[in-house]
Amino acid sequence: MDQLCAELIAAARQDGSRILALSEYGVTPVRGDIAINRALRQAGWLQVREEQGEDKLDCGASAAFALADHQIAHIYVRRPELVDEVKALLRQLDGVEMVLDEAGKQLYGLNHPRSGELVAISRVDRWFSYYYWLDQAKAPDFARTVDIHRKPGYDPVELFLDPKLPLPKLRIAWTLLKRKLGQRSLLNVISLDGSLVQGSHGRPTDKPSDGPLLISSEPDSLSGDMIPATAVRDIMLAHLEPSIAPQRHHNAMPAAAG
After folding, report:
1. What CA–CA distance (Å, rounded) separates 85 from 43?
2. Are residues 166 and 188 in the same domain?
């Protein structure tokens, strides 16, 4: 990655271009997942329908279900009278740091019209998986594949081949060959073991140095150690202008300047 960036930066400098590098987030170590949907199912709020021996999440029939995204999960609760009860359950889950209701979402700026009735945030060393089945034999067919559209949440386990598979590359090649021959075949090479994931992001980092980083070739365009995330847009636009006025920011937000 350093070598590739060096080539891009060198080419930009030859053109006389300004350089701005922004990381989307910082990844911190984790040691396990929180299967938040399993807890909701065991409480009787999340419903599934069985299709060909597999459990498929039934969002419409569920009183509550979670959309998991790394260290944050949006929990959608159909009936307002259940919100406090669901919140109480989630706060007791191992690895959950806080559960935000309407007041909490407003405090943290997460009160978007499409946000869940509740928003759960994990501890720094944990992350939320979308898993909702109670028996791995009933996991849906897409669970062991790279399929971002059918999973109710992001699945970072997709980054890893199942370590228990013998000759995984040969299995991939055989599957691709069958597809070329016109046969429908699942590329089911993904594990269901959340412990494979050892880094995550999403919650506010405890140390600014673990969070996003903004680097500029114009040092006068940045000031201070921290820049509000909402100021990044204007900084990017300023780099396109003939001259750059120094940006003055004093609010501590999750973007470190360098």
Report:
1. 10
2. yes
pTM, two decimals, is 0.83
Rounded distance, CA 96 to CA 56, Å? 25
Q: Are residues 97 and 117 in the same domain?
A: yes
pLDDT for res 252: 38
Residue of 63, 67, 69, 66 lying closest to 45 (CA atoms): 63
18 and 66 share a domain? no
Instruction: Say which residue the tokens 């590329």 belong to.
Output: 187
Is pLDDT larger for residue 39 or for residue 169? 39
What is the spatial distance between Cα 33 and Cα 8, in angstroms, rounded to a whole number? 37
Contact 38, 131 (CB under 8 A): yes
Backbone angles phi and psi of 32, in degrees to 5: 160, 160
Answer yes or no: do 87 and 104 share one domain.
yes
Examine the domain organization and report whether 105 and 135 are in the same domain. Answer: yes
* Per-residue pLDDT, 6: 94
58 and 161 co-located in one domain: yes
**Are 199 and 26 a contacting pair, CB within 8 Å?**
no
Q: Supply the DSSP string of 52-115, one letter for each residue.
A: TTEEEE-TTT-SEEEEEETTEEEEEESSGGGHHHHHHHHHTSTTEEEEE-HHHHHHTT---TTS
Task: Let me know: does 250 contact 225? Beta carbons within 8 Å.
Answer: no
Full domain range(s) for residue 120: 28-200
Q: How confident is the model at residue 208 (pLDDT cuts 50, 70, 90)?
A: confident
